[in-house]
Specification:
The structure holds two protein chains of two kinds.
Chain A lengths: L8 E5 L4 E5 L3 H7 L2 H12 L13 E4 L14 E6 L6 E6 L3 H7 L4 E5 L6 E6 L2 E6 L8 H12 L5 E4 L2 H4 L7 E3 L3 E3 L4 H7 L2 E7 L10 H17 L1 H9 L3 H8 L16 H4 L1 H7 E5 L9 E4 L16 H8 L7 H14 L3 H16 L18 H13 L3 H5 L2 H9 L1 H4 L4 E2 L2 E2 L9 H9 L39 H20 L14 H12 L5 H21 L29 H15 L9 H6 L5 H7 L1
Parallel strand pairs in A: 1-6, 7-12
Antiparallel strand pairs in A: 1-2, 3-4, 3-6, 4-5, 7-8, 9-10, 9-12, 10-11, 13-14, 15-16
Chain B lengths: L1 E8 L10 E8 L4 H7 L7 E6 L2 E2 L11 E6 L5
Parallel strand pairs in B: 1-5
Antiparallel strand pairs in B: 1-2, 3-4, 3-5
Classes of the chains: A alpha+beta, B mainly beta.
Bound molecules: iron/sulfur cluster.
The site of iron/sulfur cluster has 15 residues of chain A, from loops.
Amino acid sequence: MPYGYNGKILHVNLTDLNFEIETPEEIFYRRYIGGSGLAAYYLLKNIGPGVDPLGPENVLIFTGSVVTGAPFSGFSRYTVAAKSPLTGGFGESEAGGYFGPELKFSGFDAVVIKGKAPKPVYLWINNGRVELKDADAVWGLGNAETLDKIREDVGDDKARIASIGPAGERMVLFANVMNELAHANGRCGMGAVMGSKHLKAVACRGDAKHLEFADAEHVKKLVSWHNQRIKEHLPNQNMRKYGTPMFVVGLNKAGILPTRNWRESVFEGAEKIGVPGYEKILKRNATCYRCAVGCKRVVETAEPYHVNPRYGGPEYETLASFGSLCGIDDLGAVAKANELCNHNGLDTIGAGAVVAFAMECFENGVLTAADADGRKILFGDADGMLWLVDKIVNRKGLGDLLAQGVKRAAQKIGDKAQAYAFTIKGQEIPLHDPRGKTGIGLSFALSPTGADHVETPHDTIFVGDAVKLLAPLGILDPVVPLALDEAKVHFFKQGQLSWGLNNVLGICNFVDAPLFALSYEKLIEAVKAITGWETSLWELLRATERSEVMARIFNNREGFGPEDDCLFRRLHEPIPAGPLKGQRIDPDRMKKAIQLYYEMMGWDEQGRPLPAKLHDLSLGWLMETESDG
Amino acid sequence: MNVNIKIKLFATLRAPSTETADCYSIPAGTTVHALLEQLKIPVEEVNLVFINGNCGNLTSILEGGDRLSVFPSLGGG
Ligand code: SF4
């Protein structure tokens, strides 16, 4: 019998309103494990190249992993995946919270959804029973009302719900999926895919006791060891005390806080939107399923920007995207933007980026007051920012244009707007400046989902002695944040395997090796005790590489090539002021580094995994699909 | 009694008088936290402490000959 997982995958066809249950063999779980690995498998198997991401042929996947729902701090993340309407490529996004474990308890390891419902529905999974229910009463509602009404409808106030807001229904291309109002599968427009399928929500409920572990006693022991270390380990203490808002001031001091649409890298208002300011609005900490860290924030703000505390509080990415990137130092307004996004189901990185793009267009006369009901929305205009977010949600006027993301909006506005439009593979950029940490530059350029900030270690952490934390990955030389040489490519490639493992296993970065409380050794022990598999770090990192290669092949099949593995113009220009003044990324050096990465990975110079590599990873079945592309 | 230690501060952390001190004198029994305060380094900016190449804590007690590395929080996510 399977330990730690159910051995059941639910397949739902929304067009016919029916479903099937698949029961894969153990070897399948051991090979693909979960998260981005399992998602990539079902995407490759179920959709051919060229499918419309917002059409019924696209496949939408909700999946945890073989360890999701085990009572460890941070083993609560789950993946939502589909072909991305934003990039046209591999789309995936992870979220913590409570939904992932509950899905597992409800009796399924993953849900694979095809087709399009004739009218709005939601999926209700209750202890192995599956039902598609009418969503007319919640269609059009924000996430809080949706959550309350669905709980009422199913008669269970402990049902866990992942839902879309009006932004997803209206297929805003950076619409997200929210669970428990404060946890977002933010990136890649997964909410728009859900909206296109008329699927308002997935609700689930189950009994945690159904999940059996191979060595339950040892699981218990490891959990208490981990939770004790969380209490004593400085990075985890900081995470609890300050949460991700602590990155604002640190990155600003280092001169790499993206400011005013990447025009600058130092923000004069950093203290106001970072921890010193945040302390004043912090109401309490919040957490994810069974997590002893509790790094999440709940805020309370006064008029004019009163927010509903049910929607949590802004995290670093949101503080920087609506704050420094828009030149806004009013934390109340940023918290309000966060609430609006969580209520309506918008990715805060995408939304902040598109507002900042519009602001720079206004500053330069590319957009004018005539485009925005008489408003000229410049950097620093908090009310203008909130007005724009509302227009995007409602797809009104300029908001309708911006709802298509920075890349498409710029194409429609015209040539002049291109100068201010920054995306990679069509994805808006997370709030990290690769000019101060070139490994992140490699990650931005090479991520299958477009720029991503949690797929790889941040160079700046692993300088000097701190590199010792990476020794189990075979990284022994201290990292030089500004170098872009062979050593950096090696650091990135190895580091990516470790960070990627968190996306495969569904583990939060903030509890796991190498920086946070769990060590690699204890992580492997945990996987063994949960599943009963005699596994190793080596085996798990191979599974991560397998998932990376599958995502790569998905994109190759869609026509992506080396020219798409790039950064954007401003990163090749010198930082204008601050501690890293003059720092830039040389495009030729970047290209060389990317070619070297392909070679290290066993890919050809077009970035296609070689047949030998596919066989090496037991992915021979992909040879045919790949030659299609 | 005083003992000597080596201090290395990384990235944005700067002490007013010493950036890299190869021979810094402290009273025996000083904790990392107390030393950081003495150096006027904002403790809330410190995210990692290594003593002689091993991960330490703010409460770790420093001994003569120790090599202390202090890192700020410059991550993301
Ligand atoms: S560390 Fe924070 S984000 Fe991660 S699982 Fe715990 S509470 Fe959630």
